[in-house]
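Comment thread on ticket #2218

A.B. wrote:
> Attaching the input chain for the structure job we discussed in standup.
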Amino acid sequence: MGRLLSIDYGRKRCGVAVTDTLQIVATALATVPAKDLVKFLTEYTSREPVDEIIVGQPRTMNGEPSESMRYISPAVGQIKKALPHIPVRFSDERFTSVLAHRAMIDSGVRKMDRRDKAAIDRMSAVIILNDYLQSRQLNIQP
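C.D. wrote:
> Ran it. Output below, let me know if you need it in another format.
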């Protein structure tokens, strides 16, 4: 069984998280400049088996895809082209940045460290992946 990998895609940088090989626990992996994401994924998947890539899909409050999809969709197309053997799925990412910031506060991370946007991106990717794992357990389509 391979890992699941999630991406919190941003125009400047992307948070990346992965599961263990049993697909039980999600952990932060890296923050990657957006321009280097496909290269990073290609290198990572050459070393580690990955069964699926889950990309956070920003949505508006009424459930419609947000304006951000206009730059996320082309990036997902590049990922699919570079890694055609790995399914790429979207998962709702509403409020992940807020939840990531809250989790950092709750875990006692100092105020200066909470300003680290790269850490928030990684934590957001973990939240996206955990939500996906939970929806899969409940047999809910994300």
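A.B. wrote:
> Thanks. Noting for the ticket: The two ends are 21 Å apart (CA to CA).
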